[in-house]
Amino acid sequence: MAWIKVIPYVFIGIGLLNVLFPRTAWFWNIGWQFKNAEPSEAAILMGRIGGILAVGIGLFLLLSGLGT
To answer: In this structure, are residues 4 and 54 in contact, taking their beta carbons and an 8 Å threshold?
Structure first.
């Protein structure tokens, strides 16, 4: 069960990727399926909001004792 201690860090890492680099996260998630596609402003905004939520969940899990 040592792998469960990694979960908060995965949430925080993916969340930070979405907050800091939303275009890159969009291309890794959806953009690779299309040729010459660009994300909309709404997609970038939703990626950032999702990233903030993921970081919050990761911090909650880390501070609640799951990551120790």
So the answer is: no
Q: What share of the chain is helix, strand, coil (3-state, %, to 5)?
A: 80, 0, 20
pLDDT of residue 65: 81
Task: Provide the whole-model pTM.
Answer: 0.84
CA distance readout (Å), 41 to 11, 23, 27, 57: 23, 10, 14, 24
Q: Are 29 and 66 in contact (CB under 8 A)?
A: no
Contact predicate 8/61, CB 8 Å? yes
Give residue-wise pLDDT tens across range 32-67. 888 888 999 999 999 999 999 999 999 999 998 866
What are phi and psi for residue 34, nearest 5 degrees?
A: -120, 155
